[in-house]
Amino acid sequence: MTITKAFEEQFGELPQLQIQAPGRINLIGEHTDYNEGFVLPASIDKYISFAINKGSRDDLARVYSIDKKELYEFKLTQLDAIPSGGWRNYIIGVVAEMEKAGAKVKGFDCVFTGNLPQGAGLSSSAALECGLSYGLNEIFALGLSRLELVKCSQKAEHNYVGVKCGIMDQFTSMMGQENKVIRLDCRSLDYEYFPLELGDFTIVLCNTNIAHELASSEYNVRRAQCEEGVALLQKYYPEIKSLRDVDINMLQAHKSEMEDVIYRRCKYIVEENLRVLAFCDALNNADFESAGALLYQAHEGMRTEYEISCKELDFLVEFTKDKDFVVGSRLMGGGFGGCTINLVKQKDTAQFIEEISKVYLKEFDIQLGCYHVNIGSGVKSVTDIEY
Ligand code: GLA
User: What CATH number should be reported for the domain holding residue 295?
Assistant: First the structure.
């Protein structure tokens, strides 16, 4: 079926616009974005796809989720009627935040579907937000820039979903380019595209198929803990604005004044920022062994200091450690489930997938999802989409 057809079945006419919004991977730099640090993500060739039309009524939005077979209607005059959870919150949140940014969204009809696994740490939520905001901006010629749409999408998640996320996911979904990774400075929002050249290696994602409920509440706790660390250090270093400005010596000098948990959270972030920069150097030098070692270090930091791993993720990472054909592995995304990202010798990928799937099934009785992803482009209009 095509998305145009699905739209026609739902709303009885053809859509004017079809949009594809990608998910993302992140090579390294987890939880550094809201600490104004560095990240190294890329948009992938898995998407949420939309068909959109102006609506027949100026004050009514009608959005149909093809996958969930659910229709959501809301009045554009009642954007403070926050739904009680699920995909609807992202939708109304995007519209509300675009309005707050000064854009006048009118009534619209929309259907969407996705091939991005949810809860896998591939940012299906950012794809949902970015695809919708981009589509509305186009169809009503609202004139917001891509960066403004990124910010509206991020705020939708803060204010209508309740996750105080950083900017990485929305930025990547909106700004991604084919075959390029983005080195983003989350403070200045300066960014650079790098071709992703991995020599004999390739990226394989392993999805635990575990999505812990904890993820969003613990996410906000981590963010608050980082802020607590910054507040304490500011007494001694008033120039500090975020953990981006902190080095390990500053942190160690005041270790005894902090709760141990705050110290560990801050240490992980300070070191993870350095790892992003070191990882870029390693890629530039085609030194994949060093790049891989940084992935393992990142995972160790997330397991023991930031404490966002879980037994399934740890098992997958541990399994790779004595395999000659894997140079690095770590959990990817917010944590508490989702995927590991693995740097694997291209010629041994099939063997890797076979072995790791088998042991995972045996250990947890859960089917592992393994994906090869290509680096696709950021949000764009397309002619029609098969799903
Ligand atoms: C989630 C958030 C991002 C980022 C990652 C962790 O995906 O949406 O902003 O913080 O977790 O790196």
Answer: 3.30.70.890
